[in-house]
Amino acid sequence: MTGADTDRGPLDGVRVLDLSSALGAYCTRLLADLGAEVVKVEPPSGDPMRRRPPLRDGITGPEASLVFASYHANKRGITLHTGRSEAMDLLAELGRTADVVVLAPSRRAPLTGFDADSGLPRWARGDAVVCVITPFGLTGPWRDFRATPLISFALGGGMHRVGTVEGPPVAVPGQAQWDEAGIHGALAVLAALEARPRHGGQVIDLSVHEVAAGKDFLVERYDVEAMFGWGRAAGVGFPPTGTWQCLDGPFEVASHQLHHWDAFLTMLDHPEELSEPSLADPLVRRDLFDGLITIIERLMATRSREELFEKGQRAGLPCCPRYTPAEFLHDAQPRARGLFVTTAKEGLGTVTLPWGFMKSTPGMLTLRRPAPGLGEHNTDVFVRELGHGAGELRSWESQGLV
Amino acid sequence: MSDSAPLALDGVRVISFGAFVAGNTVALLLSELGADVVKVEPRSRPEVLRMPAYAIGEPFTEPSGVPNTVMYGALSRSTRSLSVDLANPGARPVFHRLVASADVVVENFAGDTLANWGCSFEELVRDNPKLVMLAMSGFGHTGPRAGYRSYASNVCGYLGLTAGWGFSHGTLSDYIAGTTSALAIIAALGFARRTGDPVHLDVAQIDTMTALMAPLYLDPLVNGRSSPSAPNDVPGSWLSGVFPATGHDRWVAIELEDAEDWATLCRYLDRSDLATSDPGEATARRPELEAVFAAWVAERSPHTAMHLLQKEGLAVAAVQDSEDIWRDPQLRSRGFMVPLDHPEFGVLNYPRPCHRLSRTPARIRRTPPRLGQHTEDVLRDWLAIGDDELRLLEQANAVFQAPADRPGGAPPRTG
Question: Is residue A331 in some structural domain?
Fold first, then answer.
């Protein structure tokens, strides 16, 4: 498999038991990419993410979801009905091997042996780092409220500010709000591992709601200004800041500093129509808003985006094409950065998926395997590592426990 | 919040040149997890977010004449401010000594600023052979678009997120890259310890966002087609959307993930005739159920709608605005609001760090510093510099210490 930076990442030798859901999937993916040995535990019926579209065209069944293939790459996978009390002994055995446990318990996916007040699973090791990611945290009046990424974005204050002025507010695509909490979860796990030689194991109570509400100056701004000036705005700045239609699609210019005006003129080869020196003053440009827009629209319409991208950037202007996701995939930069990797996965075939959330010298990321098939590593883990007989495994399977 | 609890990153020293939201977020996260983070700002070229254009409310001026804003305060809290001017060659020897005693250097300069000061990674590694150095950028430091400039909104546009979402975002990629960078730094510290080699991190907003927004690319990558979904439509869910509630600009978000949710809502709204366990049927009946739900929401406040339907076990939420966040009972019950008294800003609430580790919880360490407030402290703590040398550095304008007779630096009051 190509794309790996190293065989031994920073978390080499760290064992992570992933009992989380879609909430937590990105957290453990980051830990796996950094070299941890992650075992993803699914119910015998499969993680609900296995049914999440988009599916690969022409494929059905538990391996068809590209979302699952992406979020769970680099992990091993076993099945266990963790809500059943009979799972207790196996959880204890798994827990004994785990340095890190990542959980996302909910009313719909209860976890046996989990004490919601302490955040501790009874079966975890005393020196384990237990990261409990929940939509609202383990305490508080809303702790049992149900959420999805859309719900978390709505409650956390991010959604209200996105959308047209008249509404409705619009959710960010994918599960970005949950995955942002996943990055914080991984950060907290790494901090706890760093502290582990001095302080031993601990529980991390990570609330998605606090991640969302703790950014973008929501609290500080309300303290200062209350709700003054808080609508969904049409846009910020004045020409040439904005999005312009070029020969082959839309192109963005962000001219927020004084010297950006000069860079903008250089990008357009110093057009006669914009040669008036007073236009260097943003306040003058604000006053001439509508007239300038007409001129700039005409000038941009005859250029290609690539020409403007190169010339504008060379002149120091923050600018870029507004690509569709598919156009971005074909740009030279993500290809040169190696942001996608092709892997073959049984039941799914050969697919190309996003890879590599950061770069470094020396490289720290490890790519070991594609996402696991349903129960793919049951024998690996239950028989080879925990020492159970193949017959035992078969009997658990027939009971629906595994 | 206990000010005496140990901190996870106690003993880690970080020198940060990180500017704007992304760069300052790295410093903030590491310092609240326990690192001693020193933000470097020359008096003559203060952080850009101090400029009045970024003011929240009124802009402020510190006694030294340096401007400041609540926006910068919200990102610089918990760090210490060291004013060293590397454009002044007289400051460089002491800076190299600081690097020798530090673990991490953070920067997101555009262009060759550090190299021009003789402070490139290769040069700093000579001071500190196990250095972890973070270079943050929009497009990365390799590839044909290396060094390209961007604001977070450009990153959104370039990646296809703006096209896929229908809207742009001014800070999303800043926070994602900032948090990812903090994670990468802690990982690299252990890596450098194990290997004995320095680590140079190249964290690009486009890389971190491509990984985060993976669902956006799956259909084009694998199936060779684009699949833009309608606003607020969650692929795979039975019903999702945002509906107007009573009041001005008030909204309710709902997502029904499966047949069980669908049945619960039908029953609650007295429309069991719309119940079905077949996804195809549900798609056909969705406009009708949405219309019934919209009429129900239209007569209720967003929080009432949320409470009634959460009791039924449904994923329903008020679309909270910043006033709602400020009043939020869930956040308040967990001590989310932390008031800090600041000599210019007065008392303001700041959000408690989300990293609630049971033994080493992250916490707000100190009120936002004035520029140069900790210059002498840091030089003494890290280098044991004496009074004579300090005076010489100050006379050469290599370093600047904010006047000591001013208030500030009081420990945070806990709420």
Answer: no
C-beta of residue B74 within 8 angstroms of C-beta of residue A220: yes
Find the residue in A nearest to B73 (Cα): A220
Residues of A in contact with B316 (CB under 8 A): 151
A residues 304-323 near B, CB within 8 Å?
313, 316-323
Q: Encode burial over B221-256: b for 16+ CB neighbours within 10 A, e otherwise.
A: bbbeeeeeeebbebbbbbbbbbbbbeeebbbbbbbb
Task: Examine the domain organization and report whether A194 and A279 are in the same domain.
Answer: no
pLDDT of residue B3: 74
Asked, for residue A45, whether it belongs to a domain, the answer is yes
What pLDDT is recorded for position B4? 82
CATH class of B239-325: alpha beta
Reported as a single tens digit per residue, the pLDDT across A331-385 is 999 999 999 999 999 999 999 999 999 999 999 999 999 999 999 999 999 999 9
Dump pLDDT digits (tens) for A36-81.
Answer: 999 999 999 999 999 999 999 999 999 999 999 999 999 999 999 9
**8 A C-beta contact, residue B13 and residue B35:** yes
The CATH code that applies to domain B13-212+334-400 is 3.40.50.10540
Q: Write the ipTM.
A: 0.97
* A136 & A200 share domain: yes
Residue with the two structure tokens 């020359």: B42
Q: Choose among A67, A322, A360: nearest Cβ to B199.
A: A360
Shared domain check, A196 and A66: yes
* pLDDT single digits (tens) B169-225: 999 999 999 999 999 999 999 999 999 999 999 999 999 999 999 999 999 999 999
The whole-model pTM stands at: 0.97
Mark yes or no for CB contact B212/A167 under 8 Å.
Answer: no
Q: What is the CATH number of the domain that holds A22?
A: 3.40.50.10540
A322 and B214 Cβ atoms separated by less than 8 Å: no
User: Which region holds residue A216: left if phi is over 0, alpha if psi is between -120 and 50, else beta?
Assistant: left
Domain that holds residue A281: 242-322
Give the pLDDT of residue A109: 85
Instruction: Flag whether residue A289 sits within 8 Å of chain B, measured between CB atoms.
Output: no
Contacts of A223 in chain B (CB under 8 A): 326, 348-349
Of the residues A287, A322, A357, the one at which a domain ends: A322
Measure the CA dihedral B25/B26/B31/B37, to 10°: -110
Q: Residue B269's Cα: distance from chain center in Å?
A: 41
Domain boundaries in chain B? Answer: 13-212+334-400, 239-325
What one-character-per-residue DSSP string does A60-83 give? -STT-BHHHHHHTTT-EEEE--TT
For A270-279, what is each residue's pLDDT tens digit?
A: 999 999 999 9
For tokens 């950014």, what's the residue?
A215
The answer to whether residue A237 is domain-embedded is no
Report which of A212, A41, A49 is spatially closest to residue A121, judged by C-alpha positions. A41
Q: Are strands A249-253 and A242-246 parallel, antiparallel or unpaired?
A: antiparallel
Cα three-residue angle B171-B141-B197, rounded to 5 degrees: 110
Nearest CA in chain A to B240: A150
Count of domains for chain A: 2
Within 10 Å of residue A342's Cβ, how many Cβ atoms? Answer: 13
Q: Which residues contact B237 (CB under 8 A, 6 or more apart)?
A: A148, B255, B256, B257
Domain presence at residue A233: no
Give me the total of CB pairs closer than 8 Å, taking one residue from chain A and one from chain B.
459
Question: Measuring CA to CA, which residue among B189, B196, B167, B140 is closest to residue B30?
Answer: B189
Contact criterion met (CB < 8 Å) for A57 and B202:
no
Which residue stretches of chain B have pLDDT < 70? 1-2, 404-415
Single residue among A269, A287, A322 that ends a domain in this structure: A322
3-state helix, strand, coil in chain A (%, to 5): 40, 15, 45
Contact A10, B190 (CB under 8 A): yes
Q: Which residues of B touch A206 (CB under 8 A)?
A: 354-356
